[in-house]
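Quick question, first post here. What does this chain look like in 3D?
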Amino acid sequence: MLFPNYCVPLESFLSLPPMTMHVVEVSRVTPAPDSDSVQNSVNSLAIPLTFFDIPWLVFNPVKRVFFYKITGSTRENFHSFILPKLKLSLSLVLRDYLHLCGCITSNPNEPKPSIVVSQKDAVSVTIAETDADFSLLSSYGQRPAFELHALIPELPVSDDSAKVLSLQITLFPEQGFSIGVAAHHGVVDGKMSTMFVKAWAHTCKQENRVVAPLPEALTPSLDRSLIKDTTGLDEQMIRIVRSLKQGKLIGRGGLSSAPASEGRDDDVVFATLVLSRGDVERLRERVKNESPDPSQLHLSTFVISYAYMWTCLVKARGGNMERSVSFLFVADFRERLDPPLPATYFGNCMFPAGCYNSMTAAEFAGEGGFVTAVEILSGMVKGLSSRKIETIAEEFKISFDCFAVTSQFGSLAGSTRLGVYDSDFGWGRPVKVDVVSIEGNTISMAERREESGGIELGLCMKKADLDIVLTLFNKGLQN
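> Answer (accepted):
Ran it through. Tokens below.
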């Protein structure tokens, strides 16, 4: 399903006046004082990374932007009412999410990096104002990438230290505001970064002066002793990361899909493609009709959507059909461990599953390419139940090695299970949520805001390339 503003002429972007971004202030928000708070009882807190966290040190921050529409949101109302509520609730929720104030540090005297939080640590919050078009940037159509990146703060990183979280709250006068989140993937996966935003929103929405404790579903579990390393996985992961980062463990990312430069490039655009529940069902029926043994397939909405988007990307690339192509996804392993982790375990707990260098573009671009992709993804999902955690380092190394040599490498950011549209701070649900840290063949995925069972798929690439993808995407749904 396409929206009418998908195909925006490049000249339309070029004719737009340059957006202005005025930084009003950069605040440091600290956890609110509390008699039971950790920061009142110790000078610092150190939380070691696990073998689930360490491979994500290779990647750049995960960046999301949440758009909230408030008609008539004047500067006075924003600065006197909305902004103070956002800051106060952030301070309150950081009592439970204290580790987000700290840094990842690499100490040569320690066996692995840790999240270190000192008493004076805080979350940096940039307050800004822009004259950019809120309706355009929060739409599903094509939007200039540089304008979306301007809504995300920097996350300071050095060779031996990296901040965990930075936030940016941007006012669009008379239109609404956005919240930009930059979170280090070495500390949080998508499920946990979204849980934090929901907890912040939950706290902000409460009207009482005395804020009740967070619900259990929004309270993070920080017990790292639950992750057992009995086979030296920590050391294996550290060796892999050092080999990829020229001996460093932190520093700048190496394999991230995020653009290396986020300056103005009018030719790079974002767009959100939508599959309605009906679209997904029609694609599912197509597989049932064309696959030789559909009863053996795992035909989830995730499998159908990812397979369809991947085949569109391969077809759009064109060129040498004998080129090698690879794609992967990562699965939440909290419930798959023995014993399982709490659903609120705060950290990374992701296991990669991929199809590496064994396929050519022709196998996905041909008549039966969509069904082929479904069959492969179905097998990967069903195979997760037999995956052993002892192989996680090997799996990550294979995916890293493949990324460097394959001709076209696809990956996925986000999930339909994160509930990104459930973050209501008291002024309504977000009208749009975008993963900004994607580019090229990385697809962002989220549940559809307006329809249960629908899917939102985000892309960021050169406009000419995106136009081809959109044409194929739309044509395939009409067949």
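Confidence is low (pLDDT under 50) at residues 1-6, 37-41, 257-262.
Residues 60 and 116 are 19 Å apart (CA to CA).
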